[in-house]
Amino acid sequence: MSFNIISVIGLGYIGLPTAAAFASHQKKVIGIDINQRAVDTINRGEIHIVEPDLDRVVKSAVEGGWLQAALKPTAADAFLIAVPTPFKGDHQPDMCYVQAAALSLAEVLKKGDLVILESTSPVGATEQMAEWLAEARPDLTFPQQAGEQADINIAYCPERVLPGQVMVELIKNDRVIGGMSPVCSARASELYNIFLEGECVITNARTAEMCKLTENSFRDVNIAFANELSLICADQGINVWELIALANRHPRVNILQPGPGVGGHCIAVDPWFIVAQNPTQARLIRTAREVNDGKPHWVLDQVKRTVADCLAHSDKRASELKVACFGLAFKPNIDDLRESPAMSVAHLVADWNAGETWVVEPNVKSIPEKLANEATLVSMETALQHADVLVMLVDHQQFKAIDGAQINQPWIVDTKGVWR
Ligand SMILES: NC(=O)c1ccc[n+]([C@@H]2O[C@H](COP(=O)([O-])OP(=O)(O)OC[C@H]3O[C@@H](n4cnc5c(N)ncnc54)[C@H](O)[C@@H]3O)[C@@H](O)[C@H]2O)c1
Ligand SMILES: CC(=O)N[C@@H]1[C@@H](OP(=O)(O)OP(=O)(O)OC[C@H]2O[C@@H](n3ccc(=O)[nH]c3=O)[C@H](O)[C@@H]2O)O[C@H](CO)[C@@H](O)[C@@H]1O
């Protein structure tokens, strides 16, 4: 059975590119989002998020009549769920968006449909989703009861695209397909093969769920190693970037880079899903999270020390000092300030600083209101000329290009090793 209509539920950083990828292969796609502004924007052929090349693909998909957005699901042959899965309370996965999405599509499910969960989820989430669907639609059979013979096929297929390279990685990356039965996996592979150039690698749903969490935990643990080294090296008077470059000359050593902490919507969140389910066993994964989350506070301590040194060598009072934070985004060369360790450092500095706190972020025109109440967005040139203390937080290309001769201040905290 072919897929005549594909429905993507949740039109954010993952759902919208996925919907656009199917639509650009002349598949009729209905994108569903509870956010009226997102729906209206997409239906105008525009986008509400920043991702290279996505605007062009969405525009042509909407103009060609292949993609349209709506607030509520209607009948389709395949449903992909890409809604948020944040944590709540003490780092417990919050599945309320997935549940709401599943219940909304349950109303329009029909025999032969395929339901795919793409949202990053704890182990067992797909089985749970299948239960919610079965309870909502007792007239249909599901894989947990009917196996290969089920009316509805269900799979967990995680997304692993890198923000900033989504339109390339969506198509080129291999995709893990975790069907609740072999038939479910076969149907899911058939669906992704509409646009996928990478390989569909088949497993079961629980392994696929764990695979996504494992990938991001692996990166978090490795960044934590680099961040821990940076603390040790500061204490020992060793340049951590030189050290890592030297160690990486070993043929089997490949250490990542330290920084002000780990941000984004994935790496700082997903490892907690493993910790929440296996708190006793997941000791390394939990510690990595704690090391990375602790880094902004360590950076503040470095700023305090540097400001004290600066004051000791100048006739200015603390209230007259200007501290400039370079970079607010959660990683280089993007404008995304959400879940950013650089933002955390800027807030910590501004809350503590008796003088003025300046922030430099060449990728945005304004800063969030809360930060604007305590810090001022200034140009790179102003900060370089007039700030007393410089705090390097994000290695944006503009900052890396600064000529050392332009930097007159000796009072620098460099969390990225850019101005070493
Ligand atoms: N952004 C990434 O880089 C990335 C990469 C891999 C996996 N993921 C995972 O993919 C999932 C989605 O992430 P995202 O970054 O696209 O999130 P996002 O916040 O950008 O988009 C989610 C969208 O879902 C909508 N939504 C919420 N509840 C809904 C409902 N009941 N029905 C319809 N729409 C609903 C929201 O309005 C929003 O537009 C998460 O589980 C995330 O962990 C994200
Ligand atoms: C396993 C993996 O690669 N997963 C990727 C990741 O995407 P991301 O954009 O969140 O990932 P990063 O680029 O690693 O950035 C995260 C934070 O770590 C900081 N960092 C990074 C490298 C380093 O050496 N030192 C650092 O300090 C950086 O500044 C930033 O704050 O999750 C997505 C969603 O699940 C995946 O889809 C995507 O494949």
Could you describe the 3D structure shown?
The chain is an alpha/beta fold and 420 residues long. The protein folds into two domains: 5-198, Rossmann fold; 239-414, NAD(P)-binding Rossmann-like Domain (Rossmann fold), CATH 3.40.50.720. The protein is built from 16 helices and 15 strands. The protein has helices spanning 15-23, 36-43, 54-63, 96-106, 125-136, 143-146, 166-172, 182-192, 205-236, 240-247, 270-277, 283-312, 341-352, 369-372, 380-386, 397-400; strands at residues 5-9, 28-32, 67-70, 78-81, 87-88, 92-93, 114-117, 153-156, 175-179, 200-204, 322-326, 356-360, 376-377, 389-392, 412-414. The protein is elongated, with a radius of gyration of 24 Å. It binds nicotinamide-adenine-dinucleotide and ligand UD9. The ligand CC(=O)N[C@@H]1[C@@H](OP(=O)(O)OP(=O)(O)OC[C@H]2O[C@@H](n3ccc(=O)[nH]c3=O)[C@H](O)[C@@H]2O)O[C@H](CO)[C@@H](O)[C@@H]1O binds at residues 120, 160-163, 215-216, 219, 223, 256-257, 259, 262-264, 266-267, 330-331, 341.
CATH fold descriptor of the largest domain: Rossmann fold
Principal-axes geometry comes out as elongated
What small molecules does this complex bind? Answer: nicotinamide-adenine-dinucleotide, ligand UD9
Rg over CA atoms: 24 Å
Q: Report the CATH superfamily of the largest domain.
A: NAD(P)-binding Rossmann-like Domain
Provide keyphrases for this structure.
420 residues, alpha/beta, Rossmann fold, 2 domains, 8-stranded mixed β-sheet, 5-stranded parallel β-sheet, 16 helices, 15 strands, elongated, binds nicotinamide-adenine-dinucleotide, binds ligand UD9, UDP-Glc/GDP-Man_DH_dimer, NAD binding, UDP-N-acetyl-D-mannosamine dehydrogenase activity, UDP-N-acetyl-D-mannosamine dehydrogenase, oxidoreductase
